[in-house]
UniProtKB/TrEMBL annotation:
<keyword id="KW-0472">Membrane</keyword>
<keyword id="KW-0547">Nucleotide-binding</keyword>
<dbReference type="Pfam" id="PF00664">
    <property type="entry name" value="ABC_membrane"/>
</dbReference>
<keyword id="KW-1133">Transmembrane helix</keyword>
<dbReference type="InterPro" id="IPR011527">
    <property type="entry name" value="ABC1_TM_dom"/>
</dbReference>
<dbReference type="GO" id="GO:0016887">
    <property type="term" value="F:ATP hydrolysis activity"/>
</dbReference>
<dbReference type="InterPro" id="IPR003593">
    <property type="entry name" value="AAA+_ATPase"/>
</dbReference>
<comment type="similarity">
    <text>Belongs to the ABC transporter superfamily. Siderophore-Fe(3+) uptake transporter (SIUT) (TC 3.A.1.21) family.</text>
</comment>
<dbReference type="InterPro" id="IPR027417">
    <property type="entry name" value="P-loop_NTPase"/>
</dbReference>
<dbReference type="GO" id="GO:0015421">
    <property type="term" value="F:ABC-type oligopeptide transporter activity"/>
</dbReference>
<keyword id="KW-0997">Cell inner membrane</keyword>
<dbReference type="InterPro" id="IPR036640">
    <property type="entry name" value="ABC1_TM_sf"/>
</dbReference>
<feature type="domain" description="ABC transporter">
    <location>
        <begin position="345"/>
        <end position="580"/>
    </location>
</feature>
<dbReference type="InterPro" id="IPR017871">
    <property type="entry name" value="ABC_transporter-like_CS"/>
</dbReference>
<dbReference type="InterPro" id="IPR003439">
    <property type="entry name" value="ABC_transporter-like_ATP-bd"/>
</dbReference>
<feature type="transmembrane region" description="Helical">
    <location>
        <begin position="253"/>
        <end position="271"/>
    </location>
</feature>
<protein>
    <submittedName>
        <fullName>ABC transporter ATP-binding protein</fullName>
    </submittedName>
</protein>
Length: 592
C-alpha cells in the first residue's frame, strides 16, 4: 500500500481530479440512496389509499416525478464523474509513463546490457495499467460503496439494530477472507506475468531481427515458443479462475445465508407491526444495495494487489540509481574549462570488468594520448578495444584506476560536456528510423544543407545518397535496415563528422566497406583528423599505416606501443597480422 501512496504523491498535482472523482462518486451514491425512500413513501401511500386511510393519486404522481428527477440527476452526475475519471486516468498514465521514460534515459548503460527491450515495455504497460485501473475502481467502486454502506448501516440501525450488527460483522470478515485467499492468486499472477515478460522480450527482438529468423528458418520455433508462454499463462489463468470462482461461490453462499437471516428479521418485524410496509420495502432495498459491494469486493482486493505489485515494479526501476551526472537532469554546462597542457586522453592504472563477478576485461591500462595524435588499437576480437573506448565516454565506471580527458577524471567531469568532446562511429553503425537528414543531424541543432553535403562528401556518402529517390529525405527504416552495411557505416561516419568534436573515435568504422570505398572515406577523414585527436580501431591494417602510434591489446592488457614502423619489426601482434594480411593481399593480387 505504501507503494501506491508513493504513486499518488508522484502524481500529486492531480489532486483536484482525484477529489472531483471522489465527490462525483459520493454524489452518485447519495442520489441513488434517495430512490428507496421515495419508493417506501409511495408504497405507504398506496397502502393508505387501498385501506381508505387517505392519500391521493396526485401524491403518487409527484413521487413518480421525484423518482424521475433523482434518476436524471444520478445519470448526469455519473457521467460527469466518469469524464473526470477518464481524464484522471489518462493524466496519471501520462505522468507515470513520462517519468518512467525519463528514468530510463538516465539509467547507466549496464542496465540495458541486462534487459530486453520488449520486457521493459511489457512491464511498464502492466504496472501503469494496474495503477490506473486501481484508481478508477477505487474512485468509482470503493468510495460510493463506503457511502452507501454507512448510510445503510445508520438507517437500518434506526429500524433494526440486529441487521446493522450483522452487516457490521460480515463486511470486515469478507474483506479479511478475500485478502487472505488472494495471496495464492497473486503467486499465480506473478508467474503469469513472467511468461508475458519473457515472451514480450523475445517478441520485440524477433521483430527487430526478422532477417535472422528467416535465414535460419526459425519461424516455427519462435511461434511455438511464444505460444508456449501464452499457453502456460492460460493454464495459470485457469487455476486462478477456478480458485477465484470457487471462493466466490463460498462467499456468495455465505452471503445468501446472512441475507436469509436479514430478510427473515425484516419480515418478522413487519408482520409483528414494528414498522410499516413502506419501511419494509425501504429496508429490503437498502440491504440489497449493501449486498452488491460484497460481490465486487473481491475485485477490489485483486485490483489492489495488482496495483501494489505494479507500483512495486514501477519503483523497482524508478528507485534505481541514475548514471552519475546524467545530462537529462544535470544543469546544462556550456563548456568545461579543459586544460591544454595535459594529455587529451589518459588511462592511469585502469582495470575494468563489466560486472563485479565477471573476469576483468581490461587490466592495468596505462596510456597517454596527446593533442592531435592519431592512435590505432589493434588486437584480437574480444580483446577489449571497444570496451576501452567506451570508458573514455564514461559509458561504464572503471573498476580501478582513473580515465582522464584533458587532465580531468571522467568520473568528475559533467557527462554532457565530456560526451560532447567525443565524436564516435560505433562498430554497428547504430542508426535510427527516420530520414538520412535526421540521422546525420542527430543531437545537433540546425544543420544547413551545405554542412550535410560536406559531411556526406567527406564520408564518401554523397554518391549513394545522391542516387536515392529522396536524397537526404529518404527514410532508412528501423536502425537503417534499408541501407547496406557500408552505407550505414558511411552515414554513421558523416554523423560523427557533423558533430565536429575534438576527439574522434572510429570503432571499425570502415570494416564493412570495400577497399575502394574505404580509401575514399579514409581520404575524407584524413582532412578531418587534422587537428583532432583520433582513436582508430581497425582490423584492416592498410587503414592504419599512417597513424602516429599503434597500441596492441592482448587479453585485456597493452602488449606493445610504437609507431607502425617500429611494431612491424618486433614480432608482436601487429607484425603477425601484417604478415598475414600482406600474404592475403598478395594472394588477392595474384588472383587478379
Ligand atoms: P573488441 O572490441 O576488442 O572486439 P570488446 O571490448 O567488445 O572487444 O569486448 C571485450 C570483452 O568484453 C569480450 O570478452 C566481451 O565478451 C566482453 N563484453 C563486451 N561487452 C560487454 C557487455 N556489455 N557486458 C559484458 N561483457 C561484455
Ligand atoms: Mg569491438
Amino acid at each position: 500500500m505504501r507503494s501506491i501512496a508513493k504513486i499518488m504523491t508522484t502524481a500529486s498535482q492531480l489532486w483536484p481530479l482525484y477529489l472531483a472523482v471522489v465527490i462525483g462518486a459520493v454524489a452518485t451514491s447519495a442520489t441513488a440512496l434517495l430512490t428507496p425512500f421515495v419508493i417506501a413513501r409511495a408504497t405507504d401511500t398506496v397502502v393508505d389509499i387501498a385501506e381508505g386511510r387517505g392519500g391521493s393519486v396526485a401524491d403518487l404522481m409527484w413521487l413518480a416525478v421525484l423518482l424521475l428527477v433523482v434518476a436524471l440527476a444520478n445519470s448526469a452526475i455519473t457521467n460527469i464523474a466518469g469524464y473526470f475519471g477518464d481524464v484522471m486516468s489518462v493524466r496519471l498514465r501520462t505522468i507515470l509513463s513520462t517519468s518512467y521514460y525519463r528514468k530510463l534515459l538516465r539509467l547507466p548503460q549496464r542496465y540495458y546490457d541486462n534487459e530486453l527491450t520488449g520486457t521493459i515495455i511489457s512491464r511498464l504497460n502492466r504496472s501503469i495499467t494496474s495503477i490506473t485501473d486501481f484508481l478508477q475502481i477505487f474512485a468509482n467502486g470503493f468510495f460510493p460503496t463506503v457511502v452507501t454502506l454507512l448510510a445503510v448501516l445508520v438507517i437500518t440501525a434506526f429500524y433494526s439494530p440486529w441487521i446493522s450488527l450483522l452487516l457490521i460483522i460480515i463486511y470486515p470478515t469478507f474483506v479479511w477472507l478475500t485478502a487472505l485467499t488472494s495471496r495464492k492468486w497473486q503467486v499465480w499472477e506473478k508467474q503469469k506475468n513472467d511468461h508475458y515478460d519473457i515472451s514480450g522480450g523475445r517478441f520485440s527482438e524477433v521483430i527487430g531481427q526478422m532477417r535472422v529468423v528467416k535465414s535460419f528458418v526459425t519461424e516455427r520455433r519462435e511461434a511455438d515458443s511464444f505460444h508456449q508462454h501464452y499457453s502456460d499463462a492460460v493454464v495459470l489463468t485457469k487455476q486462478q479462475s477456478r480458485f477465484w470462482h470457487s471462493m466466490d461461490m463460498w462467499r456468495r453462499s455465505a452471503l445468501d445465508v446472512v441475507f436469509f437471516v436479514i430478510y427473515a428479521i425484516i419480515f418478522w418485524q413487519t408482520a409483528t407491526g414494528q414498522y410499516s410496509v413502506g419501511t419494509m420495502v425501504l429496508l429490503i432495498q437498502l440491504t440489497s444495495m449493501a449486498r452488491q459491494p460484497v460481490t465486487s469486493m473481491s475485485y477490489w482486493v485483486d485490483a489492489t494487489q495488482r496495483a501494489v505489485a505494479g507500483s512495486l515494479e514501477y519503483f523497482k526501476v524508478m528507485d534505481k540509481i541514475d548514471e552519475p551526472n546524467n545530462p537529462l537532469e544535470a544543469a546544462p554546462v556550456a563548456r568545461v574549462g579543459w586544460s591544454d597542457d595535459d594529455p587529451v586522453i589518459e588511462f592511469d592504472g585502469v582495470d575494468f570488468g563489466y560486472s563485479d563477478s565477471d573476469e576483468l576485461v581490461l587490466r592495468g591500462i596505462n596510456l597517454q594520448v596527446n593533442r592531435g595524435e592519431r592512435i590505432a588499437f589493434v588486437g584480437e576480437s574480444g580483446g577489449g578495444k571497444t570496451t576501452l573506448v567506451n570508458l573514455i565516454m564514461k559509458l561504464y565506471p572503471v573498476t580501478a584506476g582513473v580515465v582522464r580527458v584533458h587532465g580531468q577524471s571522467v568520473a568528475e567531469v559533467p557527462t554532457a560536456a565530456l560526451r560532447r568532446e567525443v565524436g564516435v562511429v560505433f562498430q554497428d553503425a547504430s542508426l535510427f528510423s527516420g530520414t538520412i537528414r535526421e540521422n546525420m543531424a542527430y543531437g545537433l541543432g540546425d544543420v544547413t544543407d551545405e554542412q550535410l553535403e560536406t559531411a556526406a562528401r567527406r564520408a564518401n556518402a554523397s554518391g549513394f545518397i545522391g542516387s536515392l529517390h529522396d536524397r537526404f529525405d529518404t527514410e532508412i527504416g528501423e536502425r537503417g535496415v534499408k541501407l547496406s552495411g557500408g552505407q550505414k557505416q558511411r552515414l554513421s561516419v558523416a554523423r560523427a563528422l557533423l558533430k565536429d568534436a575534438p576527439i574522434l573515435i572510429l570503432d571499425e568504422a570502415t570494416s564493412s566497406l570495400d577497399t575502394k570505398s574505404e580509401r575514399a572515406v579514409q581520404a575524407g577523414l584524413e582532412e578531418l583528423m587534422e587537428g583532432r585527436t583520433t582513436l582508430i580501431i581497425a582490423h584492416r591494417l592498410s587503414t592504419i599505416s599512417s597513424v602516429d602510434r599503434i597500441i596492441t591489446l592482448r587479453e585485456g592488457r597493452i602488449d606493445e606501443i610504437g609507431t607502425p614502423a617500429e611494431l612491424a619489426t618486433t614480432g608482436g601482434i601487429y607484425a603477425e597480422l601484417l604478415a598475414l594480411q600482406g600474404a592475403t593481399s598478395k594472394a588477392d593480387k595474384a588472383k587478379l
